[in-house]
Amino acid sequence: MPNAREMIGWLLLVMLAVVGAGAAVVGIVQSPNSAPLPEAVKNTLAARSYSEVLTESIPQGKQTDYLVWQAPDRLGGYIVHNGNKRTYVYVIGTAEYTSAAVGPGTSTNNLVFTKRAAPAGGAAVLDPARGYLPYAGEAKNVQKSGDTYSFTLTQTSQQGTTQTGVFTYQVSGQYVSEFNLTVNTESVQLVISQVGTSPPVALPSGARVVTAPVGSSGTAG
After folding, report:
1. Cα–Cα distance between 68 and 50 in angstroms, integer?
2. pLDDT (tens digit, 9 = 90+) per residue, 122-136?
3. For residue 59, what is the enclosing H or E element?
4. Among 177, 208, 13, 1, which residue's Cα sits nearest to residue 89?
5. CB distance 53 to 198 below 8 Å
6. Cα 46–Cα 145–Cα 133 angle in degrees, nearest 5
7. Number of neighbours of residue 123 by Cβ within 10 angstroms
8. How far apart are CA 137 and CA 82, in angstroms?
9. What is the separation of C-alpha 220 from the centre of its chain, rounded to a whole number of angstroms?
10. Alpha-carbon Rg for the chain in angstroms
11. Residue 151 and residue 141: Cα distance in Å, rounded?
């Protein structure tokens, strides 16, 4: 996958060692037609497909990923970075395909994709929803207001410094529709839609594929 790896969207939660949780449960009744958070997370991740908009903000800038997950092993879409440049990325089975950065008006039929081996674990390990939503299971105490759930998780580094993340989940019906995480001046927002009805993940019609040299890695963006 692209240089999103360099942004908090792919790395931040790996660094959050859970050593504490904050806040008390607020007993506000949720909508009668909405699933509780653990069930909504399970339903979302079990869906055959969903669309995602992942926005990562750090002091150095912002990046937005527009992706579609298709079970069991497909993830694809494009990443907006450097103002408005787009990098198209797809993981299909055991292969990863990455385009060069292009302007927003570029026809996808003219794209050239570089093909590489997918990372270990395939599309699932790069899916933002699979990276973030399961952290709902780490919360010890949760604030609940209607269909919005929030909690904090605190990290203590080997050097003794602490860092606290504020997690918020919005449930709509039987699924999670939005996730937010804030850690100091860095933040992640993940909006999930079209659960079960997203378009299939496939390379654009007419796109050309070239094979990357042996030993190269996906570093688009």
Report:
1. 6
2. 999 999 999 999 999
3. none
4. 1
5. no
6. 25
7. 26
8. 35
9. 17
10. 18
11. 7
- Residue 187 Rama label (left phi>0; alpha psi -120 to 50; beta): beta
d(CA 78, CA 95): 16
Examine the pLDDT at 47 and tell me if it is beyond 70.
yes
The residues that bridge with 178 in the sheet, in sequence order, are 170, 191
Report the DSSP pairing between strands 208-211 and 112-117: parallel
Contact between 51 and 149 (Cβ < 8 Å): no
Retrieve residue 139's tokens.
């919360």
The dihedral through the CA atoms of 106, 48, 124, 211 has a sign that is negative
Residue 12: the pLDDT is 46
Q: How many of the other CB atoms lie within 10 Å of CB of 131?
A: 21
pTM beyond 0.85, yes or no: no
Alpha helix stretches (DSSP H) within the chain: 8-15, 37-46, 128-132
Give the domains, in start order, of the chain with CATH numbers. Answer: 3-14+38-137+174-211 (2.50.20)
SS3 210: strand
CB contact at 8 A, 146 and 137: no
Question: In a 3-state reduction of DSSP, which class is residue 168?
Answer: strand
Alpha helices per DSSP H over 83-200: 128-132
Tokens representing 23?
A: 């806040």
Task: Report d(CA 152, CA 157) in Å as an integer.
Answer: 16
